[in-house]
Amino acid sequence: MDAARSDPGTPAGAAAAAPRPFMIGLTGPIGCGKSTVARMLGELGGTVIDADVLARRATEPGRTALPAIRKRFGDAVFAPDGTLVRSALAAVVFDDGPALRDLEAIVHPEVRRLVEAELAAAQAAEAPLVIVEAIKLIEGGLADRCDEVWLVECEPSTQRQRLAGRGAADADIERRLSAQGANLADRLAEALANGPPLRRLTTEGSVDETRSRVEDALADALAPLLLDLD
């Protein structure tokens, strides 16, 4: 990235666009601490965009995704007032790969539009750092906008313990872990072969230890940019 980090193509004589924020894509399996790391990055001055929150917004009443969801999955996933019943939809797609891919094809473009609007607002506000938190960062087409992708991970035993602490039953935990697949780091590295670098961050240990890792990783990520500005 260039030192100024401004958007290219500004016409001569036109007002220069605000510098583009440094963007970190934050992803990882359920129960590994993405939201904790995102919160820490927010406390360090980052603007956090939660794609999972935006996915819920994308399926609120009146959104363009709902007619396509109804057409594909039928009335059974909707309440009488037209509100999407997320638990019913989740039950349909959880163990059905093609159905899940169909749902993602419907929802991801709308989520990306919402993310782009949030990014534009952050750039207009001259935010120096933006974090896009998304469990489907690659699938949603968001990774290519990032300067780095961070994979938040922990040991499977820690993951199970954390999910159990949220009240998840053992069978549900195993279903969730099975659904996410194995070797996520390898799959991400392959997907990002020609894209932004991948940084792995463990949340094993105490909260303070995780915070220290986050601070060190952020300092390392921003160091080239800060050196360019000297």
Task: Based on the model shown, name its key terms.
230 residues, alpha/beta, 5-stranded parallel beta sheet, 50% helix, 11% strand, globular
Descriptive overview:
Helix 3 runs antiparallel to helix 5. With 230 residues, this protein is of the alpha/beta class. The protein is globular, with a radius of gyration of 19 Å. It has a five-stranded parallel β-sheet, with helices on both faces. It has helices spanning 34-43, 51-58, 65-73, 86-93, 97-124, 156-165, 170-180, 184-191, 207-229; strands at residues 22-27, 47-50, 129-133, 148-153, 198-202. The two termini are 15 Å apart.
Overview in brief:
It contains 9 helices and 5 strands, in the order E-H-E-H-H-H-H-E-E-H-H-H-E-H. By secondary structure, the chain is of the alpha/beta class. It has a 5-stranded parallel beta sheet with strand order 2-3-1-4-5, sandwiched between helices.
Output mean pLDDT: 86
Beta fraction of the residues?
5-15%
Find the count of extended strands (DSSP E, 2+ residues). 5
Instruction: Specify the number of helices.
Output: 9
Extract low-pLDDT stretches: 8-14
Query: What's the helical proportion of residues?
Result: 40-55%
Strand order of the largest sheet: 2-3-1-4-5
State the major sheet: 5 strands, parallel
Oligomer: single chain
Structural class: alpha/beta
Approximate shape: globular
Compressed to H and E, one letter per element, the order equals EHEHHHHEEHHHEH
| Radius of gyration, in angstroms, nearest whole number | 19 Å
**Spatial separation of the terminal alpha carbons:** 15 Å
